[in-house]
Fold:
Amino acid sequence: NAGVTQTPKFRVLKTGQSMTLLCAQDMNHEYMYWYRQDPGMGLRLIHYSVGEGTTAKGEVPDGYNVSRLKKQNFLLGLESAAPSQTSVYFCASSSTGTGGEKLFFGSGTQLSVL
Amino acid sequence: GQQLNQSPQSMFIQEGEDVSMNCTSSSIFNTWLWYKQDPGEGPVLLIALYKAGELTSNGRLTAQFGITRKDSFLNISASIPSDVGIYFCAGSSGSARQLTFGSGTQLTVLP
Structure:
């Protein structure tokens, strides 16, 4: 019953460092998403993917890149971390068609940029 | 972009009390969803609503899709300690990539 798995759970970076967050889902979902959660602001969509090999920008894409080389994996990269990217990051997946807006979330990655 | 106003921002209630929270939108939505986030975890879907006026229950939880399609309500009856968490509403006008989330209601249940 793994569902959506995110690694790592916690990370501390210095300004300018780079890192990659990994998301894996075992539900054979077509759609995958990366969100960031900040206090009092709910969840905001960073990037998403509607299938293997595809990616698209969400609401707040600047400073992030993504890749979906395999259907089950969705990677989020920070090339040069900034303090404004301190946040909790959630990966999610969903199926296509009716009910596709029902997202299944991972347990999150707490990222601090110093 | 679309804006969702979720209220209240936080609630402190006694165990056994009923709870009500709501979301309003400046735009019409085709789907309303309610999620709950436990501390240290990702949000989990509670209820999905697809039709204006629809009233759906999931145990002690009841949610309604407003007639105007611009609002939704979530009620929790006879609250228990495990109801503690953040409740998010989310609205969609077409697909998951068009989901807009509310800012959340932090619920604390006092013994």
Observations:
- Chain B has a mean pLDDT of 92.
